[in-house]
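Hey, resending since the last one bounced:
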Amino acid sequence: MKFFLVLTAFLLISSISADSCENCLASGKHYCADVKLCAFSPCLNTITHALNCPSLPNSTFAYDDNVARTQWLPLFGAGATNGPNAQKCFDNNWPTMKLSKRILVNCSDPSLVLPETQCSMITAVDQTKQILVMSFRGTVGGIQLGEEFLNYFQAKKKFFDSGEIFEFFYDAYLALWQGGLEQEMRNLKYKYPNYEVWVTGHSLGGALASIGASWIVKAGLFQSSKIKLLTVGQPRTGDYDYSMWHQNTFAYSYRVVHHRDLVPHVPFQYEISDKDKMYHHRTEIWYNNNMTIGSTYHVCAEADGFYCSNQQPDYSWNDHMHYYNTDLGYYGGLGCPKN
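The structure tokens again:
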């Protein structure tokens, strides 16, 4: 009997094409990530969207926990505060990095009768390491948070020829771009044509960072190979086409998610009508712990399937405000103190 069952299973597996995930889905079948076979059933981890075909970053552009803690953390800390504290963040952690410009604009939703809210970001330059920085501030205050949530039920806007992104995120970025960021990045490109560009942000800042990295490529200012993107607590920002374009464009693009952080699951993908589904782009780095030094993390093979942080049965606001064992509500304002 056992021999018969084994033989049957062998014949079943042998009869199924071991084609690539992408080709499997293109043929109208599902891909089973558990056994890496097309149309295999039953399957616990079924892939139905090419966006989620298992793929890991090229080792040349690997995520590094120590670099994230010592370099990226003070970058998005600096972006969350005013000019003097931003430079203090650099002085305390990265002395060769110098603040270039802080941009503060009105990014209120004009369709809502609410008090004015603002969006902010900074640029910085390290002439020693040849790095330019764009760091975007996250949500500030309940009014702005309310605007974002209300906008999830409104329209999206086309992102050049590559899908759509949420209207609030689009308008907020455009306000920054027209409010001084475009001229700033053109000036920096002219002065430092061969520098890398590091783009980052937390929460709303993560969404704006994703758009910002994509925008300067679409605008023809920088090649995607010269851009590194790392966000923390980023909400879903664009639709399927935007996410596919993004992950096919950037070799170094990481979304760090802390344990049960609520915001990366907003909007809740599977509670929106199918035509309006929003998706994350690659690559998620999931810390299923408290993110203290030495904590393990998962480099997630799917972009936005029921995998990694999407396995969580519940969510936490506290996890959203704490990354790398640091309270982001205070970190930038204190000048990004070490330890």
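The CA atoms of residues 235 and 263 lie 5 Å apart.

Sorry for the duplicate.
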